[in-house]
């Protein structure tokens, strides 16, 4: 019975992580799309430079790529831990250079919204995407391949005839 409870908890936890990944991914895609289409790369670079962000051109391209491409991959659960760290980096930069001086409240340009997105990035960097993800499918395939190799090696080692004829 305990196994069934663990299975259900794991399934529900993974479902919760999937829902959160989709929501956060959509938000990042929307922000990246806005920077790319509404502001353009030059406008985003100028905005970043005006906020005192160093290497504004590089950071603008990095931010757009992380938010657009990373958002799609995040929803799919591919490279989730790395993208989570990238989200955290983008969010910390936005908090430091843009939102910190305005206080916490988002209505006043503060950092509460960006801090929440950064915390979500950190969460996924630490615990991963859950079992409803490409990352999980890849890890499962590698584990199965490793187990199969271990079983094959064990069988050969345990068979005295095979060991003698090798």
From TrEMBL:
It is found in: Cell membrane. It comes from the Bacteria. The chain crosses the membrane at residues 12-33, 53-75, 82-101, 113-134. The keyword Protein transport does not apply. Signal peptide: none annotated. Belongs to the DoxX family. It is a multi-pass membrane protein. One of its GO terms (cellular component) is plasma membrane. Keywords: Cell membrane, Membrane, Transmembrane, Transmembrane helix. InterPro entries: DoxX (IPR032808), DoxX-like_oxidoreductase (IPR051907). This is DoxX family protein.
């Amino acid at each position: 019975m305990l196994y069934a409870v663990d299975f259900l908890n794991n399934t529900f936890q993974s479902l919760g992580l999937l829902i959160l990944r989709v929501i956060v991914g959509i938000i990042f895609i929307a922000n990246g799309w806005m920077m790319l289409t509404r502001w353009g790369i030059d406008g985003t670079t100028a905005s970043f430079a005006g906020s005192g962000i160093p290497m504004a051109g590089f950071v603008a391209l990095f931010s757009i790529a992380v938010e657009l491409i990373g958002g799609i991959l995040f929803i799919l659960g591919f490279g989730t831990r790395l993208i989570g760290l990238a989200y955290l980096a983008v969010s910390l930069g936005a908090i430091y250079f843009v939102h910190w001086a305005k206080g916490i409240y988002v209505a006043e340009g503060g950092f509460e919204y960006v801090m929440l997105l950064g915390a979500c990035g950190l969460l996924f960097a630490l615990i991963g995407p859950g079992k409803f993800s490409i990352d999980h499918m890849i890890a499962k395939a590698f584990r199965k391949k490793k187990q199969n190799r271990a079983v094959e090696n064990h069988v050969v080692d345990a068979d005295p005839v095979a060991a003698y004829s090798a």
